[in-house]
Write a structure and sequence with these properties.
It is built from 14 helices and no strands. It is an all-alpha fold. It has a domain of 167 residues: Orthogonal Bundle (MetI-like fold). The longest helix has 38 residues. The protein starts with a helix and ends in a 5-residue tail after the last helix.
Length: 280
């Protein structure tokens, strides 16, 4: 009888946990659904009372308005190229730096690591003017290179990689590889990289989505419509005198789709990096 009661309590508690998680998921997904509804509706539906919650029939026409205002696909490609290059460079730099901070001893290691972490508390807006000055002097204004260069050093990425390498890569494995004559880079390439792939997926998704959604720096550097990223291009959809919310949210909706695709592609590795607690 006691076992039956415990089983019922566990089943009931599990039911409430799943119910809570389901409600939280629905609340999280509702903004995306509402954005889709507005993307298929006329502009007047934005301020309608009661609010419109049923998709309309203007998906194609609203998106055609977007294409008539901006070069949407060129901007989308620019954003994809920018985010991909930044993500790959950040993964390379962060994993190498994380490996060095986790497994090597050198003078000033802790001071340098803490100095990198302290840069995380500095608001990005404070560096806007000096960064613009340096990019201008380098002749990188109005180029994607001028946008991406400020994202290459990612303190959060270095911290995450350092923690993951420390916990997932045994020191004994490193020492055994050194005894076999492996160089440091060979150890990184052949031993560390295969182990930290889940962390790669997590950091890659974080960096890709962060750069994709960043607006201020991209808007500051880019002025040529040929180099516009999707965020800067979407900002040009707004009109002071007549704002077409259906058109704007249609552009925002289709600009969000690549992020969902990227997340679904690496979802498995992302989840495994959270749940994995030991070396396979």
């Amino acid at each position: 009888m006691e076992k039956i009661k415990k089983h019922k309590k566990l089943s009931l508690s599990r039911f409430f946990i799943y119910l809570f998680l389901s409600l939280a998921s629905l609340l999280s997904l509702f903004p995306f659904y509402w954005m889709f509804v507005m993307a298929t509706s006329p502009s007047s539906a934005y301020n309608s009372i009661p609010p419109t919650i049923v998709p309309g029939s203007l998906m194609v026409s609203n998106f055609q308005k977007v294409l008539g205002q901006i070069d949407f696909f060129q901007a989308l490609w620019n954003s994809f190229l920018l985010c991909t290059i930044v993500t790959l460079v950040v993964l390379a730099i962060s994993s190498l730096a994380g490996f060095a901070f986790a497994k090597f001893k050198f003078p000033g290691k802790n001071i340098l690591f803490y100095a990198i972490l302290l840069t995380m508390i500095i608001p990005p807006q404070l560096g806007l003017i000096p960064q613009y000055f340096l990019v201008s002097k380098a002749g990188l204004l109005d180029t994607l290179g001028g946008v991406m260069i400020v994202f290459f050093l990612n303190p959060l990425g270095i911290f995450l990689m350092r923690q993951y390498v420390s916990e997932s890569v045994p020191d004994e494995l490193i020492e055994a590889a050194k005894l076999d004559g492996c160089s440091n880079f060979r150890i990184y390439r052949s031993i560390v990289l295969p182990i930290i792939l889940p962390a790669f997926a997590t950091l890659g998704i974080i960096v890709f989505t962060a750069v994709w959604g960043e607006f201020l720096w991209q808007f500051t550097v880019l002025r040529d419509p040929e180099t516009y990223t999707i965020q800067v291009a979407l900002a040009n959809l707004s009109n002071t005198f007549n704002i077409d919310f259906g058109m704007i949210l249609s552009g925002v909706f289709w600009a969000t789709v690549p992020l969902l695709v990227i997340f679904l592609m690496f979802n498995r590795l992302f989840i495994s990096s959270i749940t994995e607690g030991s070396v396979k």
